[in-house]
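Bit of a strange request maybe. I'm writing a small parser for structure token strings and I need a real example to test against, not something I typed by hand. Could someone generate the tokens for this chain?
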Amino acid sequence: MLVDKANKPAMLRFAVLALCSAACGRSQSVPDQELTGLVVEAKKPDAAIDVERATREPAELTRALMQPYRATLAALGPHSVAVNTETVITERAGAAGGSASAPVTELSDHAQIENGDAGAFHGIYTNSADYGREVTFVDGKLYLRPRYQRWHGRAPEAPDEPAALRDQFFDALGAMWDLLAPGAELSDGGPIEIAGRAGRKISVRRSAEPANPPAEPLAQRRWREARTVDAVTGEIVLDAAKGVPLAVKLAGTIGFSRDGRRFTMKVSLDSALSGLGTTTEIAAPGDDDVVATPERLREVDARDYLLQGIAPPLRRNADGTAVPPAPAVVPATQPSPSPPSGGSSTKPATRSGDATHRRERSTEEAAP
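Reply from user aminoacidic:
Good idea to test on real output. This should exercise your parser:
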């Protein structure tokens, strides 16, 4: 094929424009979050827990104890686990160092997770304030309820939702250690066997030179920046091969101030695994104890539709792909009667079903 040299620069410019056009068209059709390594930085896998370091360095032990529960389940296989905590807060009378007054807050709680086949599980949380919640996941369906209420049965709203809900029942362990860690000193307690697994015991005591607590980004947690770890004791057993917790016992005393008042917080936690390698039969609640639950509030559909191209949609299919945003469907309502001559207007009737569902979901989300 003969090419006119005079037209060669023009042809090159046309080819470059065509390639740019194709590239731009493709970028508009692929969400940013799927362009791993280009728009979104590829997440590097976390390094394995160094159990030897965790016996002497609080930072490495923090990494081990702050892992989500799914890491423990993946490492050890099916089992049951219980986590019990107790918190007592008293106000110091007079100046710092004065005698302690009566407790202003007392709370004990219990969380338990039982794991079945094919990812099925049952989790329950209760506390001494008579609040709680319960989650069952079986046969690909979630059942949730606040304490003393009936179950709501629905499909997961995201592929990760069941695992995320299960993780929450185990969160107290990491939260308790995070509170006490700045004042902790560790020592190697040697090998120990727990439920047939080789473990490494770590003894915890108060350090003679406590570290300064880290900065807190949330305003409601700023009080933690000036807290003092006045006492801490405990024993933690990590799995020698996987670095996940097999058993944890912690107790400590925290001093802190709020609104010019000085408080003392005494905390304790006891967590242990049982039935290692054994699945629990997880059954769905009976139909007569399950109430109908709308799959999605209209506000979520409206949010996804209005934020197209700005934020990823919340609504997902079972395989994790996004549901194409569409305008929220608002049921037709009866036209309001014409206002009387006085000028006052008649308010449209409220949708009692939506209001009831919002209250039920709010209660469910607000439960610890």
